[in-house]
Amino acid sequence: MSDSRESVTGQCIAEFLGTGLFMFFGTSVLCAAKLAGASFGLWEICIVWGLGIALAVYLTAGISGAHLNPAVTIALWMFARFEAKKVAPYILAQMAGAFCGRRPDLSAVPQSVRRL
């Protein structure tokens, strides 16, 4: 990958979207179970989380490497020679993506359910 500013921006956008996507999948299944009164087991919840992560990795791996987690970015920087100048932008993009991926669920869930 080139080191141009546009390239880093595109990689950060991919991290933002990928992290937001898997957070949306995972938290949506929990909200849906709570709102519908369904008794999802751990198996069903893990399947949806796994599908969300698999989709996010598939969509972003070719662009940004699909870190999708600040811990992964830091580990790759420390042990796999990931460029230091990309660490902070990646982490900011991942944190923003996680927040934005969770936000639609917060808007859809009534206040009484949020406390649970």
Automatic annotation (TrEMBL):
The chain crosses the membrane at residues 12-36, 42-61. It is a multi-pass membrane protein. It comes from the Bacteria. Pfam families: MIP (PF00230). Coiled coil: none annotated. It is found in: Membrane. InterPro entries: Aquaporin-like, MIP, MIP/Aquaporin, MIP_CS. Gene3D superfamilies: Glycerol uptake facilitator protein. Keywords: Membrane, Transmembrane, Transmembrane helix, Transport. PROSITE patterns: MIP. The keyword Phosphoprotein does not apply. One of its GO terms (cellular component) is plasma membrane. Its main location: membrane. One of its GO terms (molecular function) is glycerol channel activity. Belongs to the MIP/aquaporin (TC 1.A.8) family. This is Aquaglyceroporin.
